[in-house]
Amino acid sequence: MPELPEMETYRRLLTEQMARKVITDVEVNREKSINVQLAQFKSQLINMQITEIHRRAKHLIFQLSSGKNLLLHLMLGGWMYIGNEEDNPDRTKQVIISFGDKKLYFIGLRLGYLHLLTDTELEKELSDLGPEPLDQTLGFPEFRELIGSRRGMLKTTFVNQQFLSGIGNCYSDEICFEAGMLPMRKADEMDEDELKILYQSMKGVLTRAIQFGGYMEEPLFKGDAKTGGYNEQCRVYDREGEPCLRCSSPIVKEEISSRKSFYCENCQS
């Protein structure tokens, strides 16, 4: 599932490609992916501009010139592609938004969605989300206070979107590895120095992942050299049995609260 770095990469690239462009057509092949009647969805998008694109947690928000918003959550298996009739993936597209000859394809939205919302509806939809991990207002004192109220394991704490928003399976494991801590460690049993290391690791891993374009393998458009660059940078995620980059011990895969987790049992404690 795309996490904060993947969605931030999408936001930046889509802003370059799509901002201020006028929507000329809309095709919906899976009506469960949208939240209003098809005719209403199309009529309220066609001839509108995408004025800005924002990210909140794992969501993208396409602001429309009408004042309404498209809220996107790709969920598991979802991705996007910018192309045209001759250049597009040979995959089922649940929603296609056209900007003249250029099209934005939404693919794999079996669980994901693209909802048309007012500002009030959008605020309500996102109201349960925790702070953004990279927000400048989240300094170490704020992080310490947040995590100090948690009793669970680091893995389950980091993927809890009400604790911090945007971190999922991949980056929770990468943060724990960077900090040298097992994902099973209890958040409320860490001392001040360990919390500082964890905080710095969280900021560092997410910043680096954004710089490399996240771990999504599919490019956003033909010639896209940015998306997915972090895939080769992952230290533990999806590297079961491979040697640890710090100590050469094999990376372990384990189910933690029904979530797959990867770690080095030798150099994480």
UniProtKB/TrEMBL annotation:
InterPro entries registered for this protein in UniProt: FPG_cat, FPG_N, H2TH_FPG, Ribosomal_uS13-like_H2TH, Znf_DNA_glyclase/AP_lyase, Znf_FPG/IleRS
Keywords, comma-separated and alphabetical: DNA damage, DNA repair, DNA-binding, Glycosidase, Hydrolase, Lyase, Metal-binding, Multifunctional enzyme, Zinc, Zinc-finger
SMART domains in the cross-refs: Fapy_DNA_glyco, H2TH
Superkingdom to which the source organism belongs: Bacteria
GO MF, one annotated term: class I DNA-(apurinic or apyrimidinic site) endonuclease activity
EC assignment: 3.2.2.23, 4.2.99.18
Catalytic activity: Hydrolysis of DNA containing ring-opened 7-methylguanine residues, releasing 2,6-diamino-4-hydroxy-5-(N-methyl)formamidopyrimidine
Domain FPG-type: residue ranges: 235-269
Domain named Formamidopyrimidine-DNA glycosylase catalytic: residues: 2-106
Needed cofactors: Zn(2+)
Family: Belongs to the FPG family.
Protein name: Formamidopyrimidine-DNA glycosylase
Organism: Sporosarcina globispora
